[in-house]
């Protein structure tokens, strides 16, 4: 089933872009056709994919403003195996211009995706760290929302605001919008607060919390400076293996949902029950600690 997944959290520094780039590469490694859309004016997903954002002639800005077709702005990321809609600081101007439109400003991305939506198995949208018109466009275009978050107090507060926005979008314009899952990032099982917040998340969201946990990891942090996903920077690193495990968990969810013949109740990537390789509830929880 074709899916558009917005990777969103208005709190910065929680691993949205790291998740977007590495999940795109990991899903592509399973022979899925993946489109990664950079919808953040910082252009970090663009740079992390090995594209110089200062040299773009067409980007997400022109697509949102209707100045070019989506297909004309796409770039193949051959080393990553996925396709990219790049972005740079021009998106800030697009955000302002969208606010001046009297109608249809929240559906620009959804309309732009229509001609190519069936071309890709998964479309990932890296959202900016703000609940602005760019994020609203992503949520309106999406089938589901993947929420990366650190296991700390302020992240819980930010999560509440995002869930409120999702409910508003669902009620107003996109009733099919679902929560894809909550992904715990930069996780260190030696941190008592992280363990407490993780337990709260699992208690509140249940199976919507991915069993796969993304660790604090040196290779994940340094891979963007080389312009490539961690999977290509150091395939055996804990960070790369964690994102491969996340991709595997999502695929298993999809396969079980298809086997049940259910298209509702958790989305095409419905709840996982056997867990990923990086699972904080396993006795090998120390394996996802900080390191290479």
Structure characterization notes:
The chain has 292 residues and is α/β, with parallel strands linked by helices. The chain has one domain (3-288): Rossmann fold (3-Layer(aba) Sandwich). 40% of the residues lie in helices and 16% in strands. It contains twelve helices and eight strands. It has helices at residues 16-28, 44-48, 60-64, 70-73, 90-99, 108-113, 133-141, 153-172, 192-205, 218-222, 230-233, 238-260, and strands at 3-7, 34-38, 75-77, 82-85, 122-126, 144-150, 178-187, 209-215. An eight-stranded mixed β-sheet has the order 3-4-2-5-1-6-7-8, sandwiched between helices. Strand 6 (144-150), helix 8 (153-172) and strand 7 form a beta-alpha-beta unit. Helix 1 crosses helix 12. The longest helix has 23 residues, at 238-260. The radius of gyration is 18 Å and the shape is globular. The two termini are 35 Å apart. The model is unreliable at 280-290 (pLDDT under 50).
Oligomer: single chain
Radius of gyration: 18 Å
Q: What characteristic shape results from the CA principal axes?
A: globular
Assigned CATH superfamily: P-loop containing nucleotide triphosphate hydrolases
Low-confidence stretches: 280-290
């Amino acid at each position: 089933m074709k899916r558009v997944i917005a990777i969103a959290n208005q709190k910065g520094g929680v691993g949205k872009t790291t998740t977007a780039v590495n999940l795109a590469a990991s899903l592509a490694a399973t022979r899925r056709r993946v489109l990664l859309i950079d919808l953040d004016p910082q252009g970090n997903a663009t740079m992390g994919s090995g594209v110089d954002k200062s040299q773009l002639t067409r980007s997400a800005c022109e697509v949102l403003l209707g100045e070019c077709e989506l297909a004309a702005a796409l770039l193949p990321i051959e080393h990553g195996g996925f396709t990219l809609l790049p972005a740079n600081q021009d998106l800030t101007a697009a955000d302002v211009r969208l606010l001046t439109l009297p109608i249809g400003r929240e559906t620009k991305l959804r309309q732009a995706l229509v001609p190519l939506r069936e071309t890709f198995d998964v479309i990932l949208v890296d959202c900016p760290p703000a609940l602005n018109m760019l994020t609203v466009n992503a949520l309106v275009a999406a089938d589901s929302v993947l929420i990366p978050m650190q296991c700390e107090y302020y992240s819980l507060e930010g999560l509440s605001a995002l869930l409120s926005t999702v409910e508003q979008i669902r009620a107003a314009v996109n009733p099919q919008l679902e929560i894809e899952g909550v992904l715990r990032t930069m996780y260190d099982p030696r941190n008592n607060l992280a363990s407490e917040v993780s337990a709260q998340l699992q208690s509140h969201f249940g199976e919507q919390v991915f069993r796969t946990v993304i660790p604090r990891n040196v290779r994940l942090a340094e891979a963007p400076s080389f312009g490539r996903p961690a999977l290509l920077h150091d395939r055996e690193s804990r960070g790369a293996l964690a994102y491969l495990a996340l991709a595997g968990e999502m695929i298993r969810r999809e396969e079980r949902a298809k086997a049940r013949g259910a298209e509702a109740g958790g989305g095409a990537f419905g709840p996982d029950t056997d867990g990923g390789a990086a699972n904080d509830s396993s006795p090998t929880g120390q394996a996802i600690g900080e390191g290479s």
